[in-house]
């Protein structure tokens, strides 16, 4: 089925990472010449700088991923539950067209097979062992005669890069979060581990930060737990002491669990937290202003309406950490370089815009619900 498909796609989830099947996934994609899209939780299962890589799919996926998954005729799903965010609330014609596209689903949990989409072939098994057997079978078949996938993928990735280029090079103040993410992606080591909180630093990061190695992107996923990053980044560094760990967190998320920073100091855990300080719960405010014309409880201000937050650099120093603040876009590169070289617990505050939504290339049914309710 995979070998005879016209426009097949591989859809890789976190199960491939848990199974340590990343080498098999890469080998299979190259032998079969099949593009690879991932879920948010599956980022890093396939190197996103690979010619066949599309990035993540879904509500905040890359346009290259959504366009390619949408037109596919066969979907090889590996270790994924087809979560709502990764599948544009399962609305046909946005991220997937299933059916008519046919699904081959591999999962170690039999309850996942066919739970969301009907499957043509369901395989209950470990991703690593199953992909290894698929590779053996494909190696025994003649090469595919369909059009090479890499050219089509490359054009779509170029188009996507042009689409987000203006925001990623924005020179305005406060700093555009896409500009910060772009510079983070360029400045961080190839094997750095990004541990995200929620909002721009989760969905935006999933969309615009390249993950080149396994287990390089850790997030709370569908739970969207605000306050996840500060403590989780410490755990990531303890688990991978030889890799740089960068925690991405907003001001609301950090203040909800700021005590986690004491643990980093007490144990001498050299994590760099990059703080997106926009003086608000930006994603919640965006929903409030868009659908209810109300910002109640989402903006951080003094009684007279002036933007308010504690001095985060002094706060970091009071914990015994190093800290710095960036307000000029042109100073980002040097500030990130200094923070990454410090090798101590470090808080880098970046003043970012809170009024720019993440590029939504997919569909989210909550938008319709907020307008029409259950009618």
Task: Explain what you see.
- With 375 residues, the chain is an alpha/beta fold.
- It has two domains: 8-155, TPP-binding domain (Rossmann fold); 169-351, Rossmann fold, CATH 3.40.50.970.
- The protein is 37% helix and 15% strand.
- The chain is built from 14 helices and twelve strands.
- A six-stranded parallel beta sheet has the order 3-2-1-4-5-6.
- The radius of gyration is 21 Å and the shape is globular.
- The two termini are 41 Å apart.
Q: Helicity, in percent?
A: 25-40%
Pattern of helices and strands? EHHEEHEEEHHHEHEHEHHEHHEHEH
- How many discrete structural domains? 2
How many helices in DSSP terms? Answer: 14
Low-confidence stretches: none
The CATH architecture term of the largest domain is 3-Layer(aba) Sandwich
The CATH class name of the largest domain reads Alpha Beta
Largest sheet properties: 6 strands, parallel
By CATH, the topology of the largest domain is Rossmann fold
The 3D shape can be described as globular
What name goes with the CATH superfamily of the largest domain? Thiamin diphosphate (ThDP)-binding fold, Pyr/PP domains
Strand content: 5-15%
Mean pLDDT: 92
Topology record:
Elements: E1 8-12, H1 14-18, H2 22-32, E2 36-38, E3 53-56, H3 63-70, E4 74-78, E5 102-107, E6 121-124, H4 127-139, H5 149-168, H6 177-187, E7 193-196, H7 203-208, E8 217-218, H8 228-239, E9 245-250, H9 251-256, H10 260-267, E10 272-277, H11 282-292, H12 312-319, E11 322-326, H13 332-342, E12 346-351, H14 365-372
Parallel strand pairs: 1-2, 1-4, 2-3, 4-5, 5-6, 7-8, 7-9, 9-10, 10-12, 11-12
Helix pairs in contact: 2-4, 3-5, 6-13
């Amino acid at each position: 089925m995979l070998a005879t498909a016209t426009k097949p796609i591989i859809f890789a989830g976190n199960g491939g990472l848990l199974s340590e099947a990343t080498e098999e996934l890469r080998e299979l994609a190259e032998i079969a010449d099949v593009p690879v899209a991932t879920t948010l939780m599956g980022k890093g299962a396939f190197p996103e700088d690979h010619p066949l890589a599309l990035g993540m799919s879904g509500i905040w996926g890359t346009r290259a991923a959504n366009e390619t998954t949408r037109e596919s005729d066969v979907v090889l799903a590996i270790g994924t539950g087809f979560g709502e965010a990764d599948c544009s609330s399962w609305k046909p014609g946005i991220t997937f067209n299933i059916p008519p596209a046919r699904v081959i689903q591999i999962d170690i949990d039999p309850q996942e097979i066919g739970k969301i989409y009907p499957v043509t072939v369901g395989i209950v098994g470990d991703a690593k062992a199953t992909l290894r057997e698929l590779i053996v079978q494909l190696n025994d078949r003649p090469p595919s005669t369909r059009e090479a996938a890499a050219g089509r993928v490359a054009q779509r990735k170029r188009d996507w890069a042009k689409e987000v280029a203006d925001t990623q090079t924005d020179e305005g103040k406060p700093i555009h979060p896409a500009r910060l993410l772009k510079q983070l992606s360029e400045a961080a080591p190839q094997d750095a581990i990004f541990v995200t909180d929620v909002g721009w630093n989760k969905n935006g990061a999933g969309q615009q930060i390249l993950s080149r190695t396994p287990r390089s992107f850790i997030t709370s996923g569908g739970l969207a737990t605000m306050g996840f990053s500060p403590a989780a980044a410490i755990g990531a560094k303890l688990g991978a002491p030889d890799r740089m760990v960068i925690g991405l967190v907003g001001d609301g998320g950090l203040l909800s669990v700021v005590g986690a920073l004491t643990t980093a100091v007490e144990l001498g855990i050299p994590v760099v937290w990059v703080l997106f300080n926009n003086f608000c719960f930006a994603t919640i405010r965006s929903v409030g202003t868009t659908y209810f014309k109300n910002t109640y409880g989402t903006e951080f201000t003094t009684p007279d309406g002036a933007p308010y937050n504690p001095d985060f650099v002094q706060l970091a120093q009071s914990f015994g950490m190093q800290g710095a603040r960036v307000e000029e876009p042109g100073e980002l590169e040097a500030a990130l370089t200094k923070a990454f070289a410090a090798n101590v617990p470090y808080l880098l505050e970046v003043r970012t815009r809170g009024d720019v939504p993440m590029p939504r290339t997919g569909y989210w049914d909550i938008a319709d619900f907020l307008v029409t309710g259950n009618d």
